[in-house]
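Researcher: Here's a chain I'd like modeled. Treat it as a single chain, no partners, no ligands.
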Amino acid sequence: MHLARQDAGAAVIIGGGIIGAAVAYELVRYGLTATLVERDAIGRGQSGRNWGFVRQQGRSPAELPLMRAATRRWGELEEELDASFDWVRGGNLALATDDDGAERYRTWAGIGREHGVDTALIGAAEVQRIVPGLRLPYTAALYAAGDGHADPLSATRAYASAAERGGVRVLCGHTARAIVQRGGRVRGVVTDGGTLDADVVVCAAGSASRRLLRTAGLSLPQNLVRGTVAMTEPVEPLTRASVWAPGLAFRQRPDGRLVVSTGGGGEVDLTLETMIQARRFLPAFRHNARRLRLRVNGAALHDLRRRFGAELPDPEPRPTYGRVRDSMLRLREAVPALSSVRCERAWAGQIDSTPDALPVVDRLPDPAGLVVATGFSGHGFGLAPAIAESVADLVVGAPPRHETGTFRFSRFAEGDFKAPDAIL
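Model: Modeled as a single isolated chain. Structure tokens:
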């Protein structure tokens, strides 16, 4: 299928995840014409596969102003987008299981309060009120009542549907192949169905961003972490909170099912790309050494074939069933009432990660007209409402509503970044 060429001056957004869909919606509010290009279906990538946490607690201080703004928007979005996506403001409960973790929590509680987060160290009675019957040993408990969770796929599709109702052209099943530039500025996007002309291109392509930006002469440091998630059968109401502890994270959906994981981390599949970028990512690997595992598998051959010109689709990420088993075992031990709960299904997603685990949100001077919104390192779902506001501002050349200077593209080339400093 060949695409009709659109009017020059319009924006093309690459990526139908929650960032791309939310940016499209915000551009409608600016009255700007836009086309959203997605290689699969809306939300089929990481945006529809994450835990669904909307969490201020435990984040890097650099992200907290954006996350505070995003959390305020989340409470209004179902009405604004005229859609239901199971938004629950049930708080976030984080449990430390050793003395070092408890000390990090005490330090972060002060940082959080300085930024206006309603976070506090709580005692055993309050933990039992939040998750009745919890038997997980811990050394400290940190709770932020204003945090919440939502269904990722429904929220992503709600944004895309609202954008489409506002006039955005949504093209699913069209893979972006290259960013076109001439005379020092972007001119459009080459897709497998034709070329879309544009004066502004937004790269919100998640795991495909490094590959796409290379076509514009740019080198984005980006590694992929394969994260595994499981879902249980429906159980009786347990908690409205999202819960995090080393080796276990979970939330309960309105239908009673629990979304469960091993509490962060995942597998890094060894490829040529991984090795090329190893130096920049060493501090991040050290920071997450207990949670990340390097795997040698077919991803290396797939990467090599694509680098030598083969047009190959991204393979479906496969869950690591050892992680499913471990998280389910830990859940049953943590909540004895769930000792016989069964896992209904499991899935995996590709988390696009940067060396400092902070996103890239920037309008680049060269090529002019290119806006980058990627590298969210597992935090994009929660941040999306505020990120989209700032990206839309960058598209139209307005001052961003939320400060994005920390997230500039050039920080990696400048060496102006540090190891991740989030505690969850």
